[in-house]
Amino acid sequence: MFKLFFKNFKEKVALSNDEKTAIGENLKSKEIKKGQFLLGADEICNHIVFIEKGVLRTYLKDESGFEHVIFFGLEGWTAGDLNSFMKQQPARFYIDALEDCELTMISKTAHDQLIETIPAFESYMRILMTNAYMASLSRTSDLISLSLEERYKNFNTSYPSIIQRVPQYMIASHLGVSPETLSRLRAKIVD
Amino acid sequence: MFKLFFKNFKEKVALSNDEKTAIGENLKSKEIKKGQFLLGADEICNHIVFIEKGVLRTYLKDESGFEHVIFFGLEGWTAGDLNSFMKQQPARFYIDALEDCELTMISKTAHDQLIETIPAFESYMRILMTNAYMASLSRTSDLISLSLEERYKNFNTSYPSIIQRVPQYMIASHLGVSPETLSRLRAKIVD
DNA sequence: TTGACTTCTTGACAAATGTCAATGAAACAA
DNA sequence: TTGTTTCATTGACATTTGTCAAGAAGTCAA
Questions:
Q1: Bigger pLDDT: B1 vs B73
Q2: pLDDT value of residue A191
Q3: Nucleotides of strand C under 7 angstroms from a protein beta carbon
Q4: Facing residues of B47 across strands?
Q5: How many structural domains are present in chain A?
Q6: What is the number of other CB atoms lying within 10 angstroms of the CB of residue B100?
Q7: Domain residues for A88?
């Protein structure tokens, strides 16, 4: 139970058995099947989830109804609409499962309580947020400064397993282009 | 000294006088003139800075030498190449002053020590990172899902003061387009 | 003031990407 | 198996954006 979660935790912050027990009591497990939703836009995001197994997709819809993939989550990653979670406001994102998933969930109540009572948990969240911010910044930099071809090659080398597990049109969406454009790029690269 | 820094701090986390003193001993002030650099790419980012006064620009250069603005920092904002700071690796970003600046600086050594010894400081950093991540995510969402016109209008309403204080071609760069394209968009909007 | 420099605008054209439509392959369920 | 659905590819064309070049307006310093 929560196996990968605690493995990941201990790689970032030291954790006594008492602390581990206290945190464990505030976690819940959940399984969702491929195609099911974890969160819909306009709902309040009441949990952040840690992915023990499976693939999640976080995306938003623009006014035309077009879906834009914000990110993919694999084993060991965290997902959730953080803005909605922190401020308890309606979510901007949808989250659904691209494969059957096993998740470790932390509710807002549990999160707030753990932050107050377990310093190691606050340390873990600080490190998680710092890493997430750095990754997001790196993606923004790539979006602004790199060509589509460079972005695609970067994505391929950085996340080869995502390519294997996710349809190509979703990769295109994550890169910010249409499926046709990515398809043509791939045809060009082969030459 | 550090006036705006502590004002901002106390809006996020409660702070005793003893803690304030301990933190203050780990801060430094610095002034830089318009045009001067706070950080050059390939240097190690040894400080994160809090902007008491002035405007900073964070940008990177692509292989063609083109500059791409990552963000602007105004009074009350934080700047620095976080990835370089945290991992003590060469920076990817340049940071320079668009106006004369007064800065509050935290060195890596001071940061690490304060994280260890002052829980309120770790709370502050956690909240800072969380907010920075949410803002970065929001920007990524906008870049992927909105048209240039929508992004420009959003920027205008979200950061009207930046428009007043920063050359238009840098705004264009922040939006991810050429100066000519932004100029033409503005001409179109007037109609 | 004059001259140098920076910034913004505009035109003409090129390159990148989007849109729409058709096709075929692969995956999946009945 | 058969039929249905999803996905990837390709062509034709439209739209957006970039590039290069020129010029106008403003700023700043000697």
A1: B73
A2: 61
A3: 6-12, 16-21
A4: B107
A5: 1
A6: 14
A7: 3-117
